[in-house]
Every structure is written in C-alpha cells, then in structure tokens.
Amino acid sequence: DVVLPNFLPSFRMQADGMIEQCSGEPAPPTRKEGNEGPSRQDPFAPIDVSKNLRKNSVRGASFMSLARIAGLVLRIGSTGVLARMLSKDDFGLIGMTAVFSNFLAIFMDVGLSQATIQRPEINHRQISTLFWINVGLSLVIAAIFAGSASLIAAFYKAPLLVSIIPVLALSYLFGGLGLQHSALLTRNMRYSVLAGSEVFSSI
Predict the structure, then answer these.
(1) How far apart are CA 198 and CA 68, in angstroms?
(2) Stretch 29-35: mean pLDDT, rounded?
(3) Half-sphere exposure in the Cβ direction for 26 (13 Å, CA)
(4) Count of Cβ atoms closer than 10 Å to residue 81 Cβ
(5) Rounded to an integer, what distance in angstroms lies between the CA atom of residue 69 and that of residue 31?
(6) Residue 92 and residue 98: Cα distance in Å, rounded?
(7) Which of 45, 37, 47 is nearest to 189 (CA)?
(8) pLDDT (average), residues 51-71
(9) Considering only CA atoms, which of 3, 5, 19 is closest in space to residue 114?
(10) Which one of 13, 61, 157, 179 is most buried, counting C-beta atoms within 10 A?
(11) How far apart are CA 130 and CA 194, in angstroms?
(12) Residue (of 187, 182, 178) closest to 67 by Cα position
C-alpha cells in the first residue's frame, strides 16, 4: 500500500475551503434511490441512501471487486504480450520509469476527489473549479516528469529515456481529466459505470 505524505491531509482541508468559497448556486434537491424521474440524471443531486445502504454497499463492493479482478487479469495479460513483443532491453526501459511515475502519481489528486465525494451538497460551479484544479495539477506533474527526462536518463545511463518519458507523461493529463468524473460516479453510487470504466481503462 502507498503511504501518503503527511501534508496531503492539509490539501484536502484546502479543497474543502475552496468548495466553500465556490458555493454560489443553490443545492439540488435530494433525490431518493430508485427514483427514475428526470432528477436521476442530475449528477449533483445528493442521494438518500438511508433505506438501501446495505444493498448499495454490497452491490458496489461486488462491482468494484469484479472490476479489480478483471483489471488485474488484463494488466497481467498485457504485460505478458509486451514482454513477448519487446526485447528485454526495451521492456526494461519502461520499468525504469515506474519508480518516478508512481511517485508523481500520488500528487495528482491531493484529496480533491474525496472532497467531492464527502460533501453533503455540491453544485456544478464547485465541481468545475475542482476539475480545472485537477487538470492544472496534472499539467504541472506531466511537465515535471517530461522536464526531468534528461536527468532520469542520465541516472540510468539510458539515453532512449529522453524520448520515452515525455510520451509517458501524457498519461497524467488523461488521468487528471477523469478524476472528478470518477468522484461523481462514486458519490452517486454508480458502481456499475465506474467498474466498466475501470476495466475499459485497463485494456
């Protein structure tokens, strides 16, 4: 398990503060689970899960467990395919970057998704603010990773990493674009959609 740095909780508190500052729209009315009317399409309307909490929890755990298993199988399969298609040297170059890429990935969210999920009420303006903060953080992280390509290449004495790392850095941008969408799906307990997106992203 990845241990988050001690200063990340402060980012989460700052995220809550930013949400408070962005409050300017009335909160949507609470919608009850099982309502198939037009309000069901509103991703910002809070759900009343008091009557179906156990059912939703079991269903969500089932969907996400299956998604994690399917994603693990797909990743193992894709790793095996790449290992056969690439030479040992080329495959090793990708592994060299894993230490740095996984470390930088810790700073992509900094608690903003949890702020979206846990807020009792939230509106479009607040989500839009957090979305663009996530995108901005992703751009900064991608720029840092791409800018450090020459240093990483010098550290490993592998000049090819100079051209590989900037391409890998694009994954941070794509990841940042989906963080708030995933948070909204989790907030609304749309576990089937969330599980499907997780499996699809592993392909």
Answers:
(1) 8
(2) 49
(3) 3
(4) 10
(5) 32
(6) 10
(7) 47
(8) 84
(9) 19
(10) 179
(11) 19
(12) 182
Could you give the CA distance from residue 180 to residue 121 in angstroms, rounded to a whole number?
15
109 in helix, strand or coil?
Answer: coil
Q: What is the mean pLDDT of residues 70-85?
A: 87
Q: How far is it, in rounded angstroms, from Cα 48 to Cα 24?
A: 23
Spatial CA neighbour of 133 closest among 105, 169, 109: 109
9-13, 55-59, 87-91, 190-194 — which is least confidently predicted?
9-13
Amino acid at 179: L
- Does residue 76 surpass a pLDDT of 80? yes
Q: Which two tokens stand for residue 73?
A: 């199988």
Amino acid at 29: P
CB 200 within 8 Å of CB 73: no
Max CA distance (Å), the chain = 61
Residue with tokens 């009335």: 26
Q: Are 133 and 11 within 8 A, CB to CB?
A: no
N-to-C CA span, the chain: 23
Beta-ladder partners of 32: 48
Where does the chain have alpha helices with state H? Answer: 8-22, 53-85, 88-96, 98-105, 112-118, 124-147, 149-156, 161-187, 191-202
pLDDT in tens, 120-172: 888 889 999 999 999 999 999 999 999 999 999 999 999 999 999 999 999 99
Say which amino acid occupies 104. L
